[in-house]
Design brief:
Layout (H helix, E strand, L loop, with lengths): L2 E5 L2 E4 L7 E3 L15 E3 L2 E3 L3 E3 L8 H9 L3 E5 L11 H9 L2 H14 L4 H13 L5 E4 L4 H11 L3 E5 L6 E2 L7 E2 H7 L4 E6 L2 H8 L5 E4 L9 H5 L5 H18 L6 E5 L5 H9 L4 E4 L1 H4 L9 E2 L15 E2 L6 H6 L11 H11 L5 H4 L4 E3 L1
Parallel strand pairs: 6-7, 6-15, 7-8, 8-9, 9-12, 12-13, 13-14, 14-15
Antiparallel strand pairs: 1-2, 3-18, 4-5, 10-11, 16-17
Helix pairs in contact: 4-5, 7-9, 10-13
Length: 369
């Protein structure tokens, strides 16, 4: 571990982002048809190790079906527009068409004017279940105690607790702290929780009983957390650190495996490939899916940080639409910039370097460039 002296008594660790690392070719190659991208978490099996992020510009009840058809787990944000408005399509169009200088205030108004509707989120979960897909929903740490039991009792199969940064015990002066270990133990469904960026923080989350841990702060292209809070994580280093915590916890727990899920800063298929090479079991993606012509954002993209009532840490972005969600996930690609056929790119990278499955691929040699 390289320590860099900033000045005086202040030093820092050297960290690497995806654009600073690359995977190294191996002596063996194989045919892409012999590569498996299968991934399973708890009792749920998927053809690809990708998760569609719980962002209103990416996952709606309709797009969740399309995304799931491509072997990807889609996560609906229960605190988003779909949990507040019976038909939010008119508001999605308004967000897509508003000028950039008015976008943040519009988002704040839309997400504050109407509260989360408990009956509506029950209906959304029923709607997803009736479509036949694996039902996964997301809540913020602040509203987990309120919304998670409703989601579980309504039939949600996987719960995601996602925030900028999540601790094993969320302390709030206004009420009882949320003890994730006790809370997860009481839920009868697998829970994915995060983000985190260090091995120690990840180890604490793994000890809560979580099935998966999110690495990063999510929404790499949609948030401005670094500019507002000064908080940033170099993702290649963060994933490798948390992967080491996964190994330590495997020994500590006597064999319990917790999935490491990269979340954020993956704007193209090359970044996704590098996330797995660094040790991720799955990747939660948002911006690349917002480029779909059938994505609910209509060519725009934003995360939950962008509509915070008092301290927004994100923006609405205009995205270049490149093709349908089917094409973005499984091709065929009509561009050469890594924004389409994400699964095909992962398979090709694994085949080119000679690995047949994801666990093997995590052992690939990497170089710093």
């Amino acid at each position: 571990m390289v320590e860099v002296v900033i000045g005086g008594t202040k030093s820092a660790r050297q960290g690497y982002s995806f654009d600073q690392v690359a995977i190294a070719p191996q002596r063996r190659t194989r045919d892409a048809s012999e590569v498996s991208t299968n991934w399973n978490i708890d009792a749920y099996k998927f053809a690809t190790p990708l998760i569609a992020a719980p962002m209103d510009s990416v996952v709606s009840p309709q797009s969740a079906v399309t995304i799931s058809r491509n072997g990807v787990l889609a996560v609906l944000n229960l605190e988003g527009l779909w949990g507040r408005y019976e038909d939010p399509t008119i508001y999605l169009r308004e967000i897509a068409n508003v000028s950039q200088d008015q976008a943040t205030s519009l988002l704040q108004r839309l997400y504050s004017d109407k509260p989360v509707d408990h009956e509506l989120i029950k209906n959304r979960i029923t709607q997803l279940k009736e479509s036949g897909i694996t039902v996964s929903v997301a809540v913020s740490p602040q509203r987990t105690a309120e919304l998670a039991p409703i989601a579980a009792s309504s039939g949600a199969e996987i719960l995601v607790i996602r925030g900028t940064t999540v601790s094993a015990e969320h302390v709030a002066a206004s009420g009882e702290p949320l003890n994730l270990k006790s809370f997860i133990h009481e839920l009868d469904i697998p829970v994915i929780v995060g983000g985190c960026a260090t091995a120690q923080a990840a180890l604490h989350l793994m000890r809560t009983g979580a099935a998966g841990v999110l690495v990063g702060f999510g929404g790499g292209s949609s948030h401005t957390t670094s500019e507002v809070l000064g908080v940033r994580v170099p993702m290649a280093t963060a994933i490798a650190d948390v992967a080491s915590a996964r190994r330590d916890y495997l020994d500590e727990s006597g064999g319990r495996y917790v999935h490491v899920i990269a979340d954020g800063s993956m704007g193209n298929s090359g970044d996704i490939v590098k996330a797995f090479a660094c040790g991720a079991d799955a990747a939660m993606i948002g911006s690349v899916l917002s480029r779909g012509t059938d994505s609910p954002g209509g060519g725009t993209h934003w995360g939950s940080e962008a509509w915070h009532a008092t301290l927004p840490r994100g923006e609405r972005h205009q995205m270049k639409q490149v093709g349908t969600l089917d094409q973005i996930l499984n091709g065929p690609a009509t561009t050469g910039d890594g924004t389409m056929n994400l699964v095909g790119a992962l398979r090709k990278a694994m085949a080119t370097t000679g690995y047949s499955d994801l666990k093997e691929f995590q052992r690939i040699e990497m170089i710093v460039s």
